[in-house]
Amino acid sequence: MRESCQHCGFEFRLNVVSDRRTGTKYLRADCCDAPLRPCPDPAELLRSANLTPSERDYLQRIANLDWFTSKVASVLLQIEAKVKVSGEVTS
Ligand SMILES: [Zn+2]
Predict the structure, then answer these.
(1) Which domain holds residue 41?
(2) 37 alpha carbon – ligand 1 mean position (Å)
(3) pTM value?
(4) Which among 38, 60, 51, 43 is positioned nearest to 84, based on CA atoms?
């Protein structure tokens, strides 16, 4: 399924830029370079109790990478969305 970009209207592609000094990762649109939002932090997501074992494995595997592909970023966004939704039910 193709998603169109809300900034330029063309086919949306995700891009991850990382700041080498701080290690912070930020998501941008690869189609038009519009800044989107900070990349979800795997270490933060790992604190959630709502992960499947395979999601946990995945996050642990990528947590120490200093560079993410757009594929990794989109998986992180999916996990983050899931964790946030189920997070509202707990506590
Ligand atoms: Zn765009």
Answers:
(1) 14-86
(2) 14
(3) 0.85
(4) 51
SS3 48: coil
pLDDT digit string, tens, across residues 30-74: 999 999 999 999 999 999 999 999 999 999 999 989 889 999 999
How would you class 41 by CB atoms within 10 Å of its CB: exposed for 0-12, middle for 13-18, buried for 19 or more? Answer: middle
Tell me which of 7-11, 28-32, 87-91 is least confident: 87-91
Domain tally for the chain? 1
Å from CA of 64 to ligand 1 middle: 29
Residue 90's region, left for phi above 0, alpha for psi from -120 to 50, else beta, is beta
CB–CB of 5/34 below 8 Å? Answer: yes
Distance from the alpha carbon of residue 79 to the mean position of ligand 1, in angstroms: 23
